[in-house]
């Protein structure tokens, strides 16, 4: 039932956006001011993704087959599909109300009320599908039905929701996050475009029986794993499981007490952290740890201190294209940035080292829902570019959803491993980490 997983992922994304818009509506009401660029970007996302793709996938595939298999589904589907048909009209009315408000023909309070009603309708729609439709579909549809539906949902060549369309949706979401107010987003005035490329499957990193201690306490108890080129590997587990210690051991910041690390064909177990960085292991640390008094640009340049000087300016522009807010504020102290902006700076600083392997430690920690989604969109884009990534996250579902493979850590041991999809579907993982 891959189609259901995809739809539920999309629902989580839309729910995050709805929560964000409710926060923005409260700010609009207090300040009596509307931001047409941000709201316009949100409406564009709703139009192209929700009305143009999400609803269409459900109508043409899942809902169509469900009507054939269930007599009781008809009235429920009639209502939901009527809401699908009315959605573009409702969104157009909201766009017109925004235009009227900006032109002085309507009030901000009226726009806020209309926006809240629109969002409540969207959330009620999602609740109904999750509560009524998907359990029914799971019960009555046959294996052959799901095979047909999944094939349509996973068709990468489909012009409406294939791989090219998904990349466009990520760009639209990136624009929303970039234009959102600082309180919920990146707080920029423009949004850059991200590029993609390919990768191979050669083993890049091999860790064997790695141990690390804090005094007499053994934090890692014989970790063995590997990362292939172009792969995204997720480390999931509760706070204190050893995820940060493991990443710090890979980068050389935390001493090893036993084991071996082979990176790009070389045993680096005894190399200092700076030498590991020169070989291409770059880390975005937990808690971001930007240099607050230094400017944003100086923070980024520090990330490139091992690189030839002639390439730094070009790399800076690539980071600025990826995170326009950093370019807008590049002369300001890094400590003046919001949490989400600092996270983008920390990732950008790591990328300035031109990593062969990027270590991301809890990149979504403490961020607003909109920015959680944007951080994982950045990870998806880096993955599409062929970047090799080790991602340590407490947000297990989001990490495993984009990972090629995952490892579950508990008190310094790997207790489970498998593909991201296998771990998401594992009952033990779902109960312990996904709240299911």
The span between the termini is 16 Å
Low-confidence stretches: 195-200
N-to-C SSE string, H for helix and E for strand: HHHHHHEEEHEEHEHHHHEHEHEEHH
Largest sheet: 6 strands, mixed
**The number of domains:** 2
The chain-level structural class is: alpha/beta
The coarse silhouette is globular
Counting DSSP H or I runs of 4 or more residues, the number of helices is 16
Round the Cα radius of gyration to an integer and report it.
23 Å
**CATH superfamily label of the largest domain:** P-loop containing nucleotide triphosphate hydrolases
Pfam families: ABC_tran (PF00005), Hemerythrin (PF01814)
GO molecular function: ATP binding; ATP hydrolysis activity; branched-chain amino acid transmembrane transporter activity
Protein name: ATP-binding cassette domain-containing protein
Keywords: Amino-acid transport, ATP-binding, Cell membrane, Membrane, Nucleotide-binding, Transport
Key attributes of the depicted protein:
P-loop_NTPase; 15% strand; six-stranded mixed beta sheet; four-stranded antiparallel beta sheet; branched-chain amino acid transmembrane transporter activity; ATP-binding; 2 domains; single chain; 16 helices; Rossmann fold; Four Helix Bundle (Hemerythrin (Met), subunit A); alpha/beta; 10 strands; 436 residues
Give structural notes.
The protein has 16 helices and 10 strands. 56% of the residues lie in helices and 15% in strands. It has 436 residues and is of the alpha/beta class. It folds into 2 domains: 2-179, Four Helix Bundle (Hemerythrin (Met), subunit A), CATH 1.20.120; 203-433, P-loop containing nucleotide triphosphate hydrolases (Rossmann fold). It has a 6-stranded mixed sheet, sandwiched between helices. The protein has a 4-stranded antiparallel sheet with strand order 2-1-4-5, covered by helices on one side.
